[in-house]
Design goal:
The chain has about 425 residues and is of the alpha+beta class. The structure holds FE2/S2 (inorganic) cluster and fe (ii) ion. FE2/S2 (inorganic) cluster binds next to loops.
């Protein structure tokens, strides 16, 4: 069966989740072509800072050069090919390869080799780009979010993001000082399942009420005063929200999808009602800081944006309202690594950042009573799709109800639609057959 036949209007073939050849093709056709999220500028605040990640399974490193510019380099020594920088993050004036000590400047330029006499009759010279750490073909930044692409040609980052950039705006605009920073460590896990499952799950409004029932029940048993003791408020609120009746998800949240596989699920939280009403003075302080910086009308406009998860296909999913970002890294056809980051809003009360951490512990940490349910589901899908019982997986909920959006995307008939899944497979087909 050809790749084109694996994706149909209302279903996809199970091979897209469990065929190693398809996975290898995805690495070549999707991850080596699309704009891949590298990191946030705050992760390399000062010259010499570095942050290691990968693109299409290839180790790369984001650095802050001595001139203040950010670089994205292949993490490979120009001598015999060893990975130069091994810790995930840190800082160093120069980067020195562990094997024979070739030394690189923070922009990847080879600056010194030991015993240079040995190279007198060869081409190896400091400064020669042929022996430096090579720059990735393209890198670009949108409001502090750094992306890179292994493809020298293709849409610009701005074209690639399109209207989904408004979700990044939503996250950054919520900072009274207009800036955000990664803070508080990383929540990391590896799950048994294909990388696409997590994107599908994060905008799936139907599953929480079913899969997350145990934590919903536990949260509902909490006395309402739990909201005000500071320790559990945001977590209890989140777990209770998962139990909102399906009518809420259907009628009040909405689901939007855009070109290149991006999408977001709306939300019906209202901080002003939920938090201020429970006498959380930090919300009043936050509101005052926002008002002082941006004025009342703009503050209301910013806080009036209500989005749940935003997926920027194929590497990140984030919650602008809750200052959370997940990076999704495929490892193999049935193993995926997810890294959860928290952002601090500069100029906001520190209590808000504590809430961010609490929220992360509820939703992104491995001890989360919510995430563990989703991971169990991915593993069950992995196992279920091994059976020969049925080759096809339905993607048809809400099919026929998708309407064009004024931004050039699609709006689902309601928040329980699988529009985002169909939209991702539409992008998938384009990448895979291009
Ligand atoms: S492999 Fe890096 S110095 Fe030899
Ligand atoms: Fe879930």
């Amino acid at each position: 069966m050809d790749v084109e036949q694996l994706v149909q209007a209302d279903r996809v073939h199970r091979r897209v989740y469990n065929d190693t050849e398809i996975f290898e093709l995805e690495i070549e056709k999707i991850f080596s072509v699309a704009w891949i999220y590298i990191g946030h500028v705050s992760q390399v605040q000062n010259p010499g800072d570095f942050y290691c990640t990968d693109i299409a399974l290839q180790p790369v490193v984001m650095t802050r050069h001595s001139d203040g510019e950010i670089k994205v380099l292949f993490n490979r020594c120009g001598h015999r090919g060893a990975q130069v920088i091994r810790p995930e993050n840190g800082s160093s004036e120069t980067y020195r390869c562990c094997y024979h000590g070739w030394e690189y400047d923070t922009d990847g330029t080879l600056i010194a080799v030991p015993r240079p006499r040995g190279y007198e009759k060869s081409a190896v010279q400091p400064g020669d780009p042929a022996y430096g750490m090579t720059h990735v073909p393209r890198m670009a930044e949108y409001r502090g979010f750094v992306f890179a692409s292994l493809s020298p040609t293709g849409p610009t980052l701005e074209e690639f993001l399109g209207p989904i950039a408004t979700s990044i705006d939503d996250l950054v605009d919520r900072a009274p000082d207009g800036e955000i920073e990664v803070a508080g460590g990383v929540a990391r896990h590896l799950y048994q399942g294909n990388w696409k499952l997590v994107f599908e799950n994060l905008c799936d409004g139907l599953h929480p009420n079913c899969v997350h029932q145990s934590s919903i029940e536990a949260a509902n048993q909490q006395d309402d005063t739990t909201y005000s003791d500071g320790a559990g408020e945001i977590g209890v609120r989140q777990m209770r929200q998962n139990g909102a009746p399906w009518e809420f998800w259907e009628d009040q949240v909405g689901l939007w999808a855009y070109r290149f596989g991006h999408s977001y699920l709306g939300d019906y939280h209202d901080d002003a009602k939920l938090v201020a009403a429970r006498n959380d003075s930090s919300f009043d302080d936050y509101y005052a800081a926002m008002e002082a910086a941006k004025g009342n009308a703009r503050t209301q406009e910013i806080l009036g944006v209500m989005r749940w998860n935003t997926n920027i296909y194929p590497t990140i999913s984030f919650m602008s309202q809750f200052r959370q970002l997940r990076v999704i890294r495929p490892v193999s056809v049935d193993q995926t690594e997810v890294l959860g980051f928290c952002f601090r809003l500069k100029g906001a009360p520190e209590k808000m950042f504590h809430d961010t951490i609490r929220f992360a512990n509820i939703t992104n940490a491995v001890a989360s009573p919510v995430l563990t349910d989703d991971l169990e589901t991915y593993d069950r899908i992995r196992r279920g799709l091994m059976t020969d019982g049925n080759d096809w997986i339905a993607t048809s909920r809400g099919l026929g109800g998708d309407a064009p959006d004024e931004d050039g995307g699609w709006c689902a008939e309601n928040g329980l639609s699988e529009l985002h899944i169909r939209n991702m497979f539409d992008a998938w087909s384009h990448y895979m057959t291009d």
